């Protein structure tokens, strides 16, 4: 590509990159997809043969990943793809995004498996939050990770692709630093989950090096950005505060997010070496992998049960 005065060609630019380069629609789509394929190659995210799952929420990032991986699977019959969605039970939000996910999967002949908190745990997230005094994202994340891993394994998926982008990773790195929780950072990176443990399905992040701005622009240009929906619980989270601060820094010092993630990638092998030797236990209640005797999902389910019993 010839860069002329930082513009890719004579067409109207749709995005300005942190480098100052401005790209038109066609050049940006090529740039974005090229970056995703490079990320897959650079971090060895895919093997020659895969039965992949893609975690879809109906949001722009997960549909972008599903769209790109689905096209890849069309060119390579040894890569098969299924979609998994979790219905947490968040009225006015998840019901809407699931309609988008179903529509996309129908139009693209992708099998979609939906698992709900109500069916799996007996309560919707909205109901859980009326019983327990916890930050919504804390229990929501624990139950979602639990179900995605369990269901991916039961579906015999080789890997699960998620829509995490560079901004998400950057937020997680900074949140862990602020909480002095480097052990949690050792579980970050473009490819996560212990391959040596058959209870875990590895998770891969093909958008690892794509910024939120790039992913949003790609989704918009590809017709994936139906209507913008954000979970009503998101604003209460620590992540939202870190996100806003990082956006502020990025505006003042373009390239900040790349720098944080790139320097993190250089330290990641040391973090994995230091922290990833911990023994993985089996939860004594449900048989799923756990850091302690009982997994976090079972701990919260017990708390819910005891509160419900007290209320009766
Ligand atoms: Fe769940 Fe929080 Fe995400 Fe809402 S913002 S879906 S509560 S993790
Ligand atoms: Zn358990």
Termini Cα gap: 68 Å
Q: What series of H and E elements makes up the topology?
A: EEHEHEHEHHHEHHEEHHHEEH
- Tell me, what's the shape? globular
Strand neighbour order, sheet with most strands:
5-4-3-6-8-7
Query: Average pLDDT value?
Result: 91
Strand content: 5-15%
Largest sheet: 6 strands, mixed
Q: What class would the helix/strand composition place it in?
A: alpha/beta
Give the helix proportion (percent range). Answer: 40-55%
Number of helices: 12
Features:
about 300 residues, alpha/beta, six-stranded mixed sheet, two-stranded antiparallel ribbon, about 50% helix, about 10% strand, binds iron/sulfur cluster, binds zinc ion
What's the helix and strand layout?
Blueprint: E1 13-16, E2 22-24, H1 25-42, E3 50-55, H2 60-75, E4 79-87, H3 94-107, E5 112-116, H4 117-121, H5 125-131, H6 136-154, E6 159-161, H7 166-178, H8 182-185, E7 191-192, E8 202-204, H9 212-221, H10 238-252, H11 256-275, E9 281-282, E10 289-290, H12 296-311
Parallel strand pairs: 3-4, 3-6, 4-5, 6-8
Antiparallel strand pairs: 1-2, 7-8, 9-10
Helix pairs in contact: 1-9, 2-9, 7-10, 7-11
Iron/sulfur cluster binds at residues 88, 90, 136-137, 140-141, 231, 233-234, 237.
């Amino acid at each position: 590509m010839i860069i002329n005065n930082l513009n890719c060609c004579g067409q109207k630019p749709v995005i300005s990159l942190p480098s100052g380069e401005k790209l038109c629609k066609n050049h940006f789509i090529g740039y974005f997809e090229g970056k995703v394929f490079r990320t897959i190659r650079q971090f060895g995210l895919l093997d020659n043969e895969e039965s992949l799952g893609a975690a879809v929420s109906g949001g722009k990032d997960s549909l972008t990943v599903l769209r790109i991986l689905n096209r890849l699977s069309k060119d390579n019959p040894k890569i098969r793809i299924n979609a998994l969605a979790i219905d947490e039970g968040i009225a006015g939000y998840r019901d809407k995004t699931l309609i988008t996910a179903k529509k996309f999967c129908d139009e693209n002949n992708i099998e979609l498996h939906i698992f709900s908190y109500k069916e799996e745990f007996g309560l919707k997230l909205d109901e859980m939050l009326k019983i327990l005094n916890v930050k919504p994202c804390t229990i929501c994340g624990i139950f979602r990770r639990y179900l995605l891993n369990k269901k991916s394994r039961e579906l015999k998926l080789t890997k699960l692709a998620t829509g995490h982008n560079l901004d998400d990773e950057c937020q997680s790195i900074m949140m862990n630093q602020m909480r002095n929780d480097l052990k949690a950072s050792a579980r970050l990176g473009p490819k996560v989950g212990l391959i040596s443990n058959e209870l875990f399905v590895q998770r891969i992040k093909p958008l690892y090096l794509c910024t939120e701005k790039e992913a949003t622009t790609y989704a918009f240009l590809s017709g994936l950005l139906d209507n913008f929906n954000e979970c009503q619980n998101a604003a209460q989270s620590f992540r939202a505060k870190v996100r806003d601060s990082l956006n502020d820094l990025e505006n003042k010092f373009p390239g900040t997010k790349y720098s944080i993630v790139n320097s993190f990638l250089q330290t990641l092998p040391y973090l994995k070496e230091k922290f990833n030797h911990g023994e993985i236990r089996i939860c004594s209640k449900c048989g799923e992998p756990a850091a302690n005797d009982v997994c976090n999902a079972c701990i919260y389910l017990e708390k819910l049960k005891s509160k419900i019993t007290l209320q009766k």
